[in-house]
């Protein structure tokens, strides 16, 4: 996969998730960060750092992005969320507008 087709999402702890750009675009916030004119670092580097989102939550968000792509293409499956991460996940999802 070419670098232009991927995006690097970096958690608060510095863990890096390299995912398909198409999957990352599920988030309106990430889409705006990567496609806005003006030469922003996120657009040029193809990476976004989230200093407020922990690694386990960002991992679950990445899983959701891929699940969302499958769901919109007609594959209806359940997306499981562990109860203990629900609040933190909802706050991150609200920020990412997903």
What is the element string, with H for helices and E for strands?
EEHHHEHH
Count of discrete alpha- or pi-helical segments spanning 4 or more residues = 5
Radius of gyration over all CA atoms, rounded: 13 Å
Tell how many strands the DSSP assignment holds: 3
Weakly predicted, low-confidence segments? none
Total domain units? 1
Strand order of the largest sheet: 2-1-3
Shape: globular
The name CATH uses for the topology is Potassium Channel Kv1.1, Chain A
Determine and state the CATH class: Alpha Beta
Structural class comes to alpha+beta
In CATH, what is the homologous superfamily?
Potassium Channel Kv1.1, Chain A
Relative helix content: 40-55%
Q: Tell me the strand percentage band.
A: 5-15%
Keywords: Nucleus
Protein name: Elongin-C
Subcellular location: Nucleus
Organism: Elaeis guineensis var. tenera (Oil palm)
Characterization of this structure:
With 98 residues, this protein is of the alpha+beta class. The chain has a single domain, classed as 2-Layer Sandwich (Potassium Channel Kv1.1, Chain A), CATH 3.30.710. Helix content is 47%, strand content 13%. It has five helices and three strands. β1 and β2 form a beta hairpin. α4 packs across α5. It starts with 5 loop residues before the first strand and ends with a helix.
Give a summary of the structure in a few sentences.
With 98 residues, the protein is α+β, with helices and mostly antiparallel strands.
């Amino acid at each position: 996969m070419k670098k232009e087709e991927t995006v690097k999402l970096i958690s608060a702890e510095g863990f890096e998730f390299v995912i398909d750009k198409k999957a990352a675009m599920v988030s309106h916030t990430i889409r705006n960060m990567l496609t806005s004119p003006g030469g922003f670092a996120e657009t040029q580097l193809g990476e976004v750092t989230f200093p407020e989102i922990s690694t386990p939550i960002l991992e679950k968000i990445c899983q959701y992005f891929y699940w969302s792509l499958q769901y919109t293409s007609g594959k209806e499956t359940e997306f499981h969320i562990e109860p203990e991460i629900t609040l933190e996940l909802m706050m991150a999802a609200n920020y990412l507008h997903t």
